[in-house]
Amino acid sequence: MTSYAAAGVDIEAGDRAVELMKSRVARSRRPEVVDDASGFAGLFDASAFLRYRRPLLATSTDGVGTKVMLAQRLGKHDTIGIDLVGMVVDDLVVCGAEPLFMTDYIACGKVVPERIADIVGGVAEGCRLAGCALVGGETAEHPGAMGPDEYDLAGAGTGVVEADELLGPDRVRPGDVVLALASSGVHSNGYSLVRHVIKTAGLDLERQLPELSRTLGEELLEPTRIYSLDCLALIREVEVHAFAHITGGGLEANLARSLPGTADAVLDRGSWTPPAIFEVLAGHGGVAQAEMDRTFNLGVGMCAVVPADQADRAVAVLTERGVPAWVLGEVVPGTGAARYR
């Protein structure tokens, strides 16, 4: 007699995964989270919004791309969830929104409870770092559609911002300064090119290259830096006009999204030295500078646009919080483009 288990779906393994992840998820809890006894939905107490004059809800959804393939190849699954949170909440905070809660979705070929618990544990840790709650999620077993060691994950987050405190292009003006907030590495964009370089150059993920202080695999799996609490702290301390999350498209394309049509951002390439991993990828892969520029963050994971007279204070605030920051460029009259001088 046939069964769901015979078709490749292990319900008991899924139940065990849930039990293993419970304590890790609890670490991301916020006071506004309300327990749903049925477990079908995540609940968040919206009465917290009563302190706002006109609260705007912000939402974002994302995944981590093909970086998951490196995590699978190296058998390290406890940090890829941090990447997921970073990709979602750092989009939310660009408009000034405080991330409140997230949900996640994992599809896999086979539920291995310990592996799923590691993945979700990473998501929960990312939520803790971002100050938001992981209020729910789903793990789906797709035998036949995915190999037993394959998985993918995605997530969605919700935040809130006061309507008259919304950040964005309309606040930016010539004379402002663009600040760079350092990335932790490659973050979660460009990994199809990363994997192509690894394959064509015959690079060993377990090897420590002369340019790096750890193995190539460890360098490439470094989790995405989560900036949300740092950006919110910066907003409290100085006048911030805009942020830009530097993801696919690189500095120029993403920063342009936060500029009005009457201004340009002129960036100084000499203001920083990209981390060594980018030199490794460009050198071993024969990747041109223009391709590096539009694919990777090159060491800048977030930008902040502030008035020139508050730039020093802004850098000091970020430095005190452990985020390396520097003046990257300036805003000048233009047509809404970001470019290098």
TrEMBL record:
Gene3D superfamilies: PurM-like C-terminal domain, PurM-like, N-terminal domain
Superkingdom: Bacteria
GO molecular function: phosphoribosylformylglycinamidine cyclo-ligase activity
Domain PurM-like N-terminal, residue spans: 55-161
EC number: 6.3.3.1
Regions that span the bilayer: none
Cellular compartments annotated: Cytoplasm
Pathway: Purine metabolism; IMP biosynthesis via de novo pathway; 5-amino-1-(5-phospho-D-ribosyl)imidazole from N(2)-formyl-N(1)-(5-phospho-D-ribosyl)glycinamide: step 2/2
Keywords for this protein: ATP-binding, Cytoplasm, Ligase, Nucleotide-binding, Purine biosynthesis
Residue ranges annotated for the PurM-like C-terminal domain, each copy included: 173-336
Keyword Ligase found: yes
EC main group: ligase
Entry annotated with the keyword Acetylation: no
Recorded catalytic activity of this chain's protein: 2-formamido-N(1)-(5-O-phospho-beta-D-ribosyl)acetamidine + ATP = 5-amino-1-(5-phospho-beta-D-ribosyl)imidazole + ADP + phosphate + H(+)
HAMAP family: AIRS
PANTHER family: TRIFUNCTIONAL PURINE BIOSYNTHETIC PROTEIN ADENOSINE-3, TRIFUNCTIONAL PURINE BIOSYNTHETIC PROTEIN ADENOSINE-3-RELATED
Family that this chain belongs to: Belongs to the AIR synthase family.
Name this polypeptide is given: Phosphoribosylformylglycinamidine cyclo-ligase
Organism of provenance: Microtetraspora glauca
Lineage: Bacteria, Bacillati, Actinomycetota, Actinomycetes, Streptosporangiales
